[in-house]
Amino acid sequence: MRQRKTRWMLYKAALGNCFEIDDWGPIEFSIMAKHFDRQGKPPYAYHAKYLAHLLSHGQLDGSG
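Structure (tokenized):
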């Protein structure tokens, strides 16, 4: 579990270098969803897609 948290923190920090953490929107969460899909972590990918959908006010359908 610690490894997952560490990995998430690294990705969040890397995206934080490109985007302000407080300003995350659908694009940033879509990037994370794609990453989690590639890593074979469907619960994390689903959550990221859901947040991207919410933040896009329904313009993203979550199909990624």
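DSSP finds three helices and no strands in the chain. The radius of gyration is 11 Å.
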